[in-house]
Every structure is written in structure tokens, then in C-alpha cells.
Write a structure and sequence with these properties.
Radius of gyration: 24 Å
Strand content: under 5%
Structural class: mainly alpha
Largest sheet: none
Mean pLDDT: 78
Order of helices and strands: HHHHH
Distance between the termini: 78 Å
Number of helices: 5
Low-confidence stretches: 28-37
Helix content: 40-55%
Shape: globular
Length: 136
Amino acid sequence: MRSPGRERRSGRLRANEVAGVAALLLLAGIGPVVGDIGSCGQAPEELDPHKFFALKAQIDCAQCEACGLRTRACAAACGFDAAPELPIGCYPLVHDGEVCLHKLQTASCDAYREHMADEGASIPTECNFCPLEEAP
């Protein structure tokens, strides 16, 4: 005859196993479908550089002001008048731009200081849509 405590423990073990299998099935069932990785269900749509760079300039300017940055890059962002052209062969998607803008909105002042430096400015990986190929 089994003790009541032993039966309860095995019942818990089964419940834990069932919960684990259910969680695994749930995660597998809600995963991205083939061809949908990274787009969050959005249809692929080319990024409009004029809209993107206008929004980016607004965010850059606001972050420069909030962080007290006074660089030429900040002045250019706050005086934004025209969007640069994307390099030939570069076709980022709207989702790429959304990820970049979100990264900029949540960046710390230290990170922004690096992004908006007059010399040696960095580009957040999320915003580097068309990295230049290294020359041989």
C-alpha cells in the first residue's frame, strides 16, 4: 500500500509534466510562420526615406535637447529640412524603420552622446539598414 504523500507527489509530477508540455505546445503554436520572421506579421512594405528621416530627426532633436547635447549632428537634426537618399541597392522595410526609431526613443543619454558625436559617431545596429561593404 502506498502512502498518501507519495501519491500526491506523483500527482504533482504529472501536473508539472502536463503544464510543461502545454507551455511547449503553446509556444510552438504561436511562433512565426515561415517567411514572417522579424516582421511581426506586417506585409513587407518599403521604407519611405523622407518619412523615416523626418521622424528620426524629430527623435534625435528631442533626445539632444533632453540630454543637453550641443553637437553639429544635433543642430542638423533640429534644423531638419531634407532627407538623405538611401544608398543604391538598399531597400529597408517599414518594420526596419520602426525598430530603429524605437531603439532611438529608448536610448540613454550616454548612447545618444555616442550616436550624435561630431567625430566618430556610432550607428545603432538597429538603424544600420545598409552597412557599407568593406573595401578589399
